[in-house]
Amino acid sequence: MPTITQNLPDTFSIEAYQKTFALRPVKYPDDMPLLYKWMHAEHVVDQWQLHLPMPQLKTHFEKMLADDHQRLYLILCDDKPIGYTEVYETARDRLSHYYKAKETDMGWHILLGDPAVVGKGYLKPTGLMISKFIFEHTEAKKIVGEPDSKVEVYQWVADSFAYRVQRLIEMPEKTAALYFCNRDEFLESRGYLSFYGATA
């Protein structure tokens, strides 16, 4: 039986801010030079801690791609790669050690790798896209997030799309803010309705 994430479509896109934001699967090994560049970017190193030599980074992504509880995608803006995301099943992830996960709960991680888009408002439309993607293509009633509590920009995006902080959790590499986003609240959030209010 395919897993929840194996059943996710390969591509997805939305129109936001007069741009097209899209997802496509990570292509191995073709995307490795780009992922290597992003993982070694100054704004990424501390948060992701994957600034490894290429052989070790390849090994890491080989394991990630073989893990059937998650799917790895590149984030595109007008067909240009700008970031990377991991969409995963929380009940089969280490996050399930920190809260009582349901089988349908989903989560995601995001990396905006292109320095040209960092701090330029791209996190909001990409967060919208990934959340919409999950709710449209799975039976998830809840999306769970665990960003580093020190990354304040997530709070702004979280408030827009009904991601509610539950508590702080101590993970091996960070103190994370545990967020829950319920499907119904997301669809009624001001962030979602600002894009889809006319047709939602």
UniProtKB/TrEMBL annotation:
<comment type="pathway">
    <text>Siderophore biosynthesis.</text>
</comment>
<feature type="domain" description="Acyltransferase MbtK/IucB-like conserved">
    <location>
        <begin position="24"/>
        <end position="71"/>
    </location>
</feature>
<dbReference type="InterPro" id="IPR019432">
    <property type="entry name" value="Acyltransferase_MbtK/IucB-like"/>
</dbReference>
<dbReference type="InterPro" id="IPR016181">
    <property type="entry name" value="Acyl_CoA_acyltransferase"/>
</dbReference>
<dbReference type="Pfam" id="PF13523">
    <property type="entry name" value="Acetyltransf_8"/>
</dbReference>
<protein>
    <recommendedName>
        <fullName>Acyltransferase MbtK/IucB-like conserved domain-containing protein</fullName>
    </recommendedName>
</protein>
